[in-house]
Write a structure and sequence with these properties.
Strand order of the largest sheet: 1-2-29-28-27
Strand content: over 45%
Number of strands: 29
Distance between the termini: 51 Å
Helix content: under 10%
Largest sheet: 5 strands, antiparallel
CATH class: Mainly Beta
Shape: globular
Number of domains: 1
Length: 361
């Protein structure tokens, strides 16, 4: 059973291009000098931080970068949320949690950080001022082997948290962000909900899944209105989404089955273009610079594309596995988590890194 659970952990971890509640420890300052070393190279800075790094968020004030960490999957319980200086990547705080952390979102006032606890099928709310856990919700669903549905992506919209469940069939949980009470389940969400995006232009929520579908959801009724299969009968495992609101384009990645980036009409789901970008995982659109950013997990690169011609303007070699992407509010800085591979005993080959790329240099 332990082996199966470890394999499940690795599967969920790999998908995050992808218990009783205890309080997190108070925020701690600065890690050891070795983990504070930052490698600088013109417009790129890279720092080894810790095992198991996943998603990132910046607070509204722009002075704190939070990084969700699951730490190691071998003989390590719990995780950490790191608080970094966005300009220097130095640690300014740590919140130690009893469960492992994957996805992340932050409240509009920056007072609450929400993280997904994928292996335990739940979400936690942390007080950003103290690093302590405020409350937690663990979902009841279990798969046929008795394990919780993996709570993967998390999106905050209009006071509600939308949480994608990695299961077959999948579910999207709708949780009140203030009370952390489950308000609604959006069922029949296909195989594995992998990505979530809200469009202010269409006032719809878009969910990608592992069956090659994009679900169009009305957040007022919490119902699926449309199901798009942009690649038809061809196999696809759609992952992350980004939008150009000015042109109505929706960008969708697939790093394993179709190995492409799709450009869709956000109103109809029609394929505008299928980009030959290979194993793309993370995707961000930058309206300030009219650029698209893609992480290629297996190829070890981050691509910068012209958003009109789709030509590659620049690429950054970030081996072995660039994963999650985060764009600063001013559109001039891109953050990347770079992950290490796993050994046969399920330990990692080294600590993961955080990269800060200055786009205006």
């Amino acid at each position: 059973m332990k082996i199966k659970h470890t394999l499940l952990a690795l599967a969920v971890a790999a998908s995050l291009a992808s218990c009783a509640a205890h309080k997190a420890e108070p925020t701690q300052t600065a890690a050891t000098p070795a983990t504070q070393a930052v490698e600088k190279n013109q417009n790129l800075e890279q720092r080894e931080l810790a095992n198991g790094l996943y998603e990132m968020v910046i607070n509204p004030a722009g002075d704190a970068l939070y990084v969700a960490s699951a730490l190691s999957f071998k003989d390590v319980q719990g995780g950490v949320v790191y608080k970094l200086d966005p300009k220097t990547l130095k640690t300014i705080g740590e919140a130690h949690t009893d469960l492992k952390n994957f996805g992340a979102a932050i409240s509009p006032d920056g007072s609450t950080l929400y993280v997904t606890n994928s292996l335990d099928g739940g979400i936690s709310a942390l007080d950003t001022a103290t690093g302590k856990m405020k409350t937690r919700t663990l979902f009841k669903e279990r798969n046929k082997e008795g394990f919780p549905y993996g709570a993967r992506e998390i999106l905050l919209h209009d006071g509600l948290l939308y949480v994608g469940g990695v299961a077959d069939p999948a579910v999207i949980w709708v949780v009140d962000a203030n009370t952390m009470k489950l308000k609604k389940r959006i069922d029949n969400a296909g195989k594995w909900v992998t990505g979530l995006h809200y469009s202010a232009q269409t006032q719809r929520l878009y969910a990608a899944n592992g069956g090659g579908e994009i679900l169009v959801i009305n957040p007022k009724t919490q119902r699926i209105e449309q199901r798009w299969a942009p690649l038809g009968v061809d196999k696809a495992l759609l992952l992350n989404l980004a939008e150009d609101p000015e042109t109505g384009r929706l960008f969708v990645t697939d790093n394993s089955k179709a190995k492409t980036t799709l450009v869709l009409d956000i109103h109809t789901g029609k394929v505008i273009k299928q980009l030959d970008t290979g194993d793309t995982l993370g995707v961000k659109f930058n309206p300030k610079r009219h650029e698209i950013y893609l992480s290629q997990r297996e190829s070890g690169k981050v691509l910068v594309l012209d958003a009109t011609s789709y030509a590659v303007k620049k690429q950054f070699d970030l081996p072995p596995h660039p994963n999650s992407l985060l764009l600063s509010a001013d559109g001039q800085t891109l953050y990347v988590t770079v992950k290490q591979g796993f050994n046969k005993d399920h330990s990692t080959k080294g600590p993961d890194s955080i990269v800060r790329i200055s786009l205006n240099q």
